[in-house]
Amino acid sequence: MTLENVYDSIAEQIDFENDPLEAVVKKAFMLGGKSQAALLKLQQKDPESTLGDYTDGIVKVVKPIGQFVDDLDEDQLASYKAGLKAIITHPDAEVEAVLEEFGDYYLDTVVAVDDMKEEINSLTGGG
Predict the structure, then answer these.
(1) Which domain, by its residues, includes 83?
(2) Residue 119 phi, psi (nearest 5)
(3) Rounded to two decimals, what is the model's pTM?
(4) How many separate domains does the chain show?
(5) I need a surface site. Which of 22, 80, 93, 98 has the fewest CB within 10 A?
(6) Separation CA 86–CA 72 (nearest Å)
(7) 125 CB-contact burial (10 Å; exposed 0-12 / middle 13-18 / buried 19+)
(8) What confidence tens digit (pLDDT) does each residue in 30-66 have?
């Protein structure tokens, strides 16, 4: 069984009567899984864990902007992602590609979690 199959199997169990809530929870779960999968790929390429500064840096750059992504149009978001990829560099092209993948998925995860919080807060009166 692949990691993707595991995520899909668990996602099938996320079944709420509230369809909008179900959608945002599943999206956050699946994107979080993809972020984790990218980190697992990095661990395979870097068993001595020398890439922590890279992933920490990506998180520090991506996390603050995540709450504002909904305010960006598609071109602006694409431009931001392209800019992020431009600053992610590594001598090993394969490692660089996985770092970029992690950056994309982490940004998408931050946005999905923010959307999930908004949906839950709208249902519970929180915020």
Answers:
(1) 3-124
(2) -65, -45
(3) 0.87
(4) 1
(5) 93
(6) 19
(7) exposed
(8) 999 999 999 999 989 887 878 889 999 999 999 988 8
